[in-house]
Task: inverse folding
């Protein structure tokens, strides 16, 4: 009898122990699932945070600083959207009155709403934001003082239709590079006060003169051109005005 009771007691003890182990295994499984779920949530939040940060970074770096912008940035830049300009859209052709955008790189479009952009007044005069400008291909003249005192302007590229650049355009700028178009005919005006001069911080800057140019009124540039060209002749005749010549 005692032996039977002893056996039954052992069986009961084993059953209780087994039940306890099952409960522990179940609890551990629950904890594992919970841990996994928590990790998934944290990873998801981490991914969203990373995406959000990436978007914020993009917003913060939409426009490069003045020191980072290069001529390559200007040449590869998209046309500036119409909403960044003020102009009279009731006319058959558009003349831009004002630039109201924030991008320091400006590419004047050839057309806005199917109408040719044929000019811009003193749109950029005294503008402290712009660094680089590319002129549209339907503009034929750069008016007097169009860029005067645009203190941070470094790069300027003319469109293919520009025929003349009036005086007073680059004084008060930080111009480093000016690319003239083939087909340009005249730079500056007859009166000495209407000459085209480089900025004071780049006195003697290089200026490649297209062969199409037949009239110059400039001072303190180093003209680059073909040997025997009008540019060389002008430089020789105006050495007293600080004009020099380098054959390309």
Result:
């Amino acid at each position: 009898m005692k032996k039977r009771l002893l056996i039954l007691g052992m069986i009961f003890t084993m059953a209780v122990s087994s039940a306890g182990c099952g409960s522990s295994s179940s609890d551990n499984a629950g904890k594992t699932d919970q841990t996994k779920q928590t990790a998934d949530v944290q990873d998801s939040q981490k991914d969203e945070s990373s995406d959000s940060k990436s978007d914020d970074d993009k917003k913060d770096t939409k426009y490069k600083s003045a020191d980072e912008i290069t001529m390559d940035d200007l040449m590869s830049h998209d046309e500036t959207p119409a909403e960044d300009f003020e102009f009279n859209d009731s006319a058959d052709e558009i003349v831009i009155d004002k630039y109201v955008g924030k991008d320091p790189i400006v590419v004047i479009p050839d057309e806005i709403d199917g109408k040719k952009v044929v000019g811009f007044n003193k749109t950029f005069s005294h503008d402290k934001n712009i660094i680089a400008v590319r002129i549209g291909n339907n503009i034929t003249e750069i008016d007097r003082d169009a860029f005067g005192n645009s203190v941070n302007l470094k790069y300027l590229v003319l469109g293919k239709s520009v025929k003349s650049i009036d005086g007073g355009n680059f004084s008060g700028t930080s111009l480093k590079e000016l690319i003239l178009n083939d087909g340009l005919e005249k730079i500056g005006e007859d009166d000495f006060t209407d000459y085209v001069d480089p900025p004071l911080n780049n006195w003697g800057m290089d200026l490649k003169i297209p062969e199409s140019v037949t009239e110059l009124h400039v001072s303190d540039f180093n003209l680059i051109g073909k040997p025997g060209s009008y540019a060389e002749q002008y430089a020789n005749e105006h050495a007293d005005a600080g004009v020099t010549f380098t054959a390309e």
